[in-house]
Design a protein that fits this description.
The protein is of the alpha/beta class. Helices cover 43% and strands 16% of the residues. It has 32 helices and 25 strands. It has an eight-stranded mixed sheet, sandwiched between helices. It has a seven-stranded parallel sheet with strand order 7-6-5-8-9-10-11. A six-stranded parallel sheet has the order 14-13-12-15-16-17, sandwiched between helices. Strand 3 and strand 4 form a beta hairpin. Helix 9 packs across helix 11, helix 13 packs across helix 19 and helix 27 runs parallel beside helix 29. The chain is globular. The N and C termini lie far apart (80 Å). The relative contact order is 0.08.
């Protein structure tokens, strides 16, 4: 195989090709001959020395070959043995060279104590020593590495949470790991906080390999959490929750496969909330029981222990009511102690209430301490797990495997965790305080030997069943994904609306188009009634430009930006048209990235990337500083954001590539007047009409932030009227009423109030401060110390 370095340098991103070469070398043992000029051309970004260093960093074993006066040749080989040595030198576990799966998570119980997601991560790592983990928790400071857990700063340097999750960071981190671990074929992530949203969006727009499988583990989407709480506040979305629900809807519909730990959760999402979940299957979660063995002796119950958290979802208020009801009916006369094992501390009033009934001890334990305490408590304790509707409660599974006597809510996925209907009927109840009190009373009246025998027998059967589940996870297959389509030759026109734009901006724009990795068929300037001087300057520039680009001007009387875009759309002779404002700039890969996204998805009507802010082209950095800082608008960029966008625009910028004929048939832009928000209105109409458009989670173009832009000068009244006209599913009266109620919170006391400039500045300052790792860790440390102090005070009070 022969590879020319100049060809690699001309690619927008050479890593996919280098990855393909690495995979071929590892599978066939083939030698690759790289050719590089001894002196780089002005447009070439590597020197010969830098190119050799790049190949070495990729893991190739290099040997200099005889060259010529102007070219250098390097032979490159790669074997499993040499690549394992390469990973070891990088401080990475060498066995990861054969890893086929990557787990992306925000929780890991091997790093800090955590809930179900972190426990799942711990179990997967325990079962598969070759499983690499990308740990995306920005609240936890960097810990010593186990040589297979990757932190964002390991791969990208310093980056804040917003830029990583909402911006470019997560996608770029996965690209780095694909290059580092060339056998990866599957990336799994959780649905909690819509963690993998940008990954799914990137694959849908050709930003990730088409043969890479993306799997979502259904665990804690926003609707599932609210359904578990079931109080008045849970009935409504906050703006953040509505955005999370839109992300979840996109993930479920577009991911390659979804795994639900219980049939309950899959049914809940599909039937109750109406999500379309692609390739859904049920797989009970793995669990490696490493706790101490419990004794087979069970005596009378002298202690009641709450297990969970001090909130409604975990049933703490119901537990309090049930204990009070049992005490009022004199059913706790044999109980010497009540305890709660949960993170944090309970409210003081709750602790005082329990202390009046029996000796009360709140416990905050790590997992090792928790298991030790459970074993100590098994002979004389009834454990209570009143968690509402959890999809797969590990806490209950652990009780079953330990053989404890417990009462739980028989809701959510808990019956599937227990796995035996008779046991569920006898020891579980409906999720309310009255039924919980009744079931606890029944169990307290049982003979200790009978109850103990039932718990012990269940333990033995459950351990055998869990062994089979663990074996199944070790060999869990992934969904088949096909290769991407065969790409046709690109046919793209660029349209530039022009109205009295300073000619130096046009010169910079033309230079950016000339530097594009995809050469457009033509560039069309739509002169929207500019003054004579500006029109003459544009004509002179085009006449004087010695460019290989085909340039032409279409003139019309002044009709506004929307009318100019419609004229450009009508003038375009290409299958695809990229529209860009006259003061903005293309990036080298803008057209290529958008065209590839269009070719990946034939239903895609519009796409674009993030617009990176700038003021002056001469001051742009040569490094990826703009991308890493994340100083740009990060909308959702999906049709599923249509409801959220009734409140605020969450679509994407107007600088975008469109399928020319498709957008013509859809009506183009509303050019009724000169008001702003024409892009918002366009995407509103497309979204509510069932059309598909997507944001590419990648740098798309450079957006010049100027003080005289339309968004800062035009009246919002007419812009709002444009939005009203963009909603095809209702009358204009209804559309304006709905948007007014959304914007004003229905006129209630909960109406959204605008921040003052001082409040907005203070909020921005706090966000910037907490984005700094040291300050964030200091705030977290202070919170933990105060919580520990409060627990200590509460415990001392309970001992009085």
């Amino acid at each position: 195989m022969f590879v020319d370095a100049e060809f690699l340098a001309d690619l927008a991103d050479p890593r996919p090709l280098l990855l393909a070469i690495k995979r071929r070398c590892l599978s066939t043992g083939e030698t690759v001959l790289f050719s590089a000029p001894r002196r780089g051309a002005p447009q070439w970004c590597w020197s010969a020395k830098e190119f050799k260093a790049l190949l070495a960093l990729c893991g190739f074993v290099l040997t200099d070959q005889d060259g010529t006066a102007d070219r250098r040749f390097l032979s490159a080989t790669l074997s499993e043995e040499s690549y394992r040595l390469h990973l070891g030198k990088l401080g990475i576990r060498d066995s990861l060279s054969g890893s086929t799966q990557l787990l992306v998570t925000s929780e890991d119980a091997t790093i800090v104590p955590t809930g179900g997601i972190g426990t799942y991560t711990k179990m997967r790592k325990s079962l598969d020593p070759m499983l690499p983990v990308l740990y995306c928790n920005f609240e936890v400071g960097r810990r010593p590495s186990d040589s297979r857990t990757f932190w964002p700063e390991d791969l990208l340097g310093s980056i804040c949470k917003e830029s990583f999750i909402e911006g470019l960071g997560l996608v770029e981190a996965v690209r780095v790991l694909l290059m580092l671990l060339p056998n990866l074929r599957l990336v799994e992530f959780q649905d909690y906080q819509s963690l993998g949203f940008r990954l799914v969006q990137s694959k849908a727009t050709a930003g990730l390999p088409s043969d890479l499988t993306l799997r979502v583990l259904l665990h804690g989407g926003v609707d599932y959490v609210k359904h578990g709480i079931q109080d008045d506040a849970a009935a409504n979305y906050s703006l953040l929750e509505a955005a999370l629900a839109a992300r979840d809807a996109f993930i479920y519909a577009n991911v390659d496969e979804a795994v639900s730990p219980s049939r309950y959760l899959g049914r809940l999402l599909e039937e109750e909330f109406g999500y379309a979940v692609r390739n859904l299957r049920t797989a009970p979660l793995p669990f490696v029981f490493d706790g101490p063995e419990t004794v087979a002796h069970y005596g009378p119950i002298r202690r009641i222990a709450f297990l969970g958290k001090y909130n409604t979802l975990k049933g703490w208020p119901d537990f309090l009511k049930a204990i009070r009801a049992l005490a009022e009916h004199d059913q706790l006369h044999g109980i010497k102690e009540i305890c709660s094992i949960a993170p944090g501390v309970p409210p003081e009033a709750d602790a005082a209430q329990l202390a009046r009934i029996a000796s009360y001890v709140p416990l905050h334990l790590n997992h090792e301490q928790f298991l030790t305490r459970l074993v100590e408590y098994v002979p004389d304790t009834l454990f209570v797990i009143p968690s509402r509707g959890e999809n797969y409660p590990y806490l209950a599974l652990e009780q079953v495997l330990l053989g404890t006597r417990f009462v739980a809510y028989g809701s959510g996925g808990l019956p599937e965790v227990i796995g035996e209907a008779d046991y569920v009927e006898q020891f579980c109840c409906a999720p309310n305080a009255a039924d919980l009190a009744e079931r606890m009373g029944q169990v307290l009246r049982m003979q200790a030997d009978d109850h103990g025998r039932i718990a012990h027998d269940l333990k033995c059967r459950a351990r055998a069943r869990q062994d089979d589940i663990n074996k199944a996870w070790s060999a869990l297959p992934s969904a088949e994904v096909g290769l991407g389509p065969v790409l046709e030759g690109p046919d793209v026109s660029v349209v530039v609306p022009f109205y009295n734009t300073p000619i130096r901006y046009i010169e910079e724009l033309l230079a950016s188009i000339e530097g594009s990795t995809l050469r457009p068929s033509e560039v069309i300037f739509v002169d929207d009634g500019s003054g004579a001087s500006a029109a003459r300057d544009l004509a002179d520039l085009i006449a004087a430009t010695g460019s290989a680009l085909r340039l032409r001007v279409a003139q019309q009387s002044n009709g506004g930006l929307a009318a100019a875009r419609n004229r450009g759309l009508a003038e375009s002779r290409s299958a695809f048209t990229f529209l860009i404002d006259s003061d903005d700039l293309l990036l080298p890969s803008t057209l290529q990235d958008c065209w590839a996204a269009m070719m990946r998805d034939p239903q895609l009507l519009v796409c674009t990337g993030f617009g990176l802010y700038f003021s002056d082209a001469a001051s742009l950095p040569d490094t990826p500083k703009l991308q890493r800082q994340g100083v740009f608008w990060k909308p959702l960029g999906i049709p599923e954001a249509r409801s959220v966008s009734l409140f605020q625009n969450n679509y994407m910028a107007a600088n975008a590539m469109v399928r020319t004929e498709g957008l013509r048939r859809s009506g183009g832009w509303d050019d009724t007047d000169w008001s702003m928000w024409e892009d918002w209105a366009l995407f509103n109409r497309l979204a509510w009409s069932g059309k598909r458009f997507l944001l590419l989670p990648a740098p798309g173009f450079l957006y010049r932030n100027t003080p005289g832009s339309m968004s800062k000068t035009y009246s919002r009244y007419f812009a709002r009227r444009r939005l009203v006209r963009s909603l095809p599913m209702m009358s204009r009266l209804d559309a304006n009423t709905v948007m007014s109620l959304v914007a004003n919170g229905g006129g209630s006391a909960a109406a959204v109030l605008p921040l003052t400039s001082y409040e907005a500045e203070l909020l921005s300052l706090m966000r910037r401060a907490l984005a700094r790792p040291k300050l964030r860790r200091m705030a977290a440390w202070t919170y933990r110390r105060l919580s520990a102090l409060r627990r200590r005070i509460l415990m001392l009070r309970s001992l009085r």
